[in-house]
């Protein structure tokens, strides 16, 4: 495989720019998209690198938008999306949070206001399967989140569902799973974080306290698609744990937990021969529910 470094635009540096990837469906071209400041203002200019042409070009449009991070939040249908600030708004009034979409073909920027929300509320903008969604704290019910979908043609948001009440007041959504579940992390001073998996289709909410023992770096995970090429040693997604015979290497999650419990409590509640011992402290119904939810992890 051949890797070709891309030279940065002249007089530019990474700390001044926010980067994203895109695919130009019109020309069949992968693009590297940079959004950088214009002088000291909160306006930005878009610069695009064409993989097909192997060159940079600067867009003519100056947009009143300032990205809030050094990379785009997600890529949807080949276009990168950023969250940031609306440069037109008076700074004394706090500014407006907006979502921006850069067209990889033209370099034009479309901006969308967030759904209406209370001051200082934490709003999470996510890619939920094939739509842009927003999770907004309810201004009516405490510890409840409202789920909105964005209509990009009109720029309007539609309320689709809600979830809660949750344990803590501050909640954000660091990621959505490809199967449609949303990862929710709640936080409260002195109590730490609690992680949930919420399925908006079924309204099923699962609390996962075991994951609190891990240092989960949600923001290091990124939207992905299967590679168009296969390097020797790579395994296709979905076949990571299969032998050549097609048999799973690992046992089911329920069997794993049963075996784990047998090791912890081998004879403490025995009423018969060792072969008949079953730990009576186990809640098999709970384990069954955990087994059903393991596909979320």
Produce a short descriptive summary.
The chain has 2 helices and 17 strands.
Overview features:
SCF_F-box_component; F-box-assoc_dom_typ1; F-box associated beta-propeller type 1 domain-containing protein; about 5% helix; mainly beta; about 300 residues; about 35% strand
Give your account of this protein's structure.
The protein is mostly beta strands. The protein folds into three domains: 14-113, no CATH class; 116-225; 233-297, no CATH class. Helices cover 7% and strands 37% of the residues. It has two helices and 17 strands. The protein has helices spanning 253-264, 284-293; strands at 18-24, 29-37, 44-50, 55-63, 65-67, 74-76, 79-86, 97-102, 109-113, 124-128, 131-137, 145-151, 156-163, 170-176, 182-188, 192-199, 204-208. Strand 12 (145-151) and strand 13 (156-163) form a beta hairpin. Helix 1 (253-264) packs across helix 2. The radius of gyration is 24 Å and the shape is globular. 22% of the residues are buried.
Query: Would you list the SSEs in sequence order as H and E?
Result: EEEEEEEEEEEEEEEEEHH
Low-confidence stretches: 243-254, 267-297
- Per the principal axes of the C-alpha atoms, what is the gross shape? globular
What kind of oligomer do you see? single chain
What's the count of strands? 17
Q: What summary fits the major beta sheet?
A: 5 strands, antiparallel
Protein name: F-box associated beta-propeller type 1 domain-containing protein
């Amino acid at each position: 495989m051949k890797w070709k470094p891309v030279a940065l635009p002249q007089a530019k540096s990474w700390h001044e720019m926010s980067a994203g990837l895109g695919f130009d469906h019109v020309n069949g071209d992968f693009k590297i998209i940079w959004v950088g400041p214009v002088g000291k203002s909160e306006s930005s200019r878009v610069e695009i690198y064409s993989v097909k042409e192997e060159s940079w070009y600067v867009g003519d449009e100056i947009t009143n938008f300032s990205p809030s991070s050094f990379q785009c939040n997600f890529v949807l249908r080949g276009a990168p999306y950023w969250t940031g600030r609306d440069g037109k708004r008076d700074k004394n009034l706090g500014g407006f949070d907006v979502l921006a979409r850069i067209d990889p073909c033209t370099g034009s920027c479309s901006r969308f206001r967030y759904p209406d929300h209370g001051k200082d509320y934490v709003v999470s903008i996510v890619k939920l399967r094939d739509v842009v969604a927003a999770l907004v704290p309810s201004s009516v019910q405490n510890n409840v989140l409202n789920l909105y979908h964005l209509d990009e043609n009109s720029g309007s948001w539609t309320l689709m569902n809600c979830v809660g009440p949750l344990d803590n007041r501050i909640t954000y959504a660091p990621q959505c799973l490809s199967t449609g579940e949303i990862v929710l992390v709640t936080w409260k001073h002195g109590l730490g974080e609690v992680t949930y998996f919420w399925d908006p289709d079924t309204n099923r909410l699962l609390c996962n306290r075991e994951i609190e023992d891990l240092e989960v770096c949600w923001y290091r995970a990124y939207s992905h698609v299967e590679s168009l090429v296969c390097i020797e040693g790579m395994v296709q997604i979905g076949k990571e744990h299969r032998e050549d015979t097609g048999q799973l290497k690992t046992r089911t999650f329920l069997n794993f937990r049963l075996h784990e419990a047998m090791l912890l409590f081998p004879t403490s509640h025995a009423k018969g021969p060792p072969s008949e011992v079953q730990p009576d402290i186990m809640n098999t119904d709970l384990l069954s529910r955990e087994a059903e939810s393991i596909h979320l992890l």
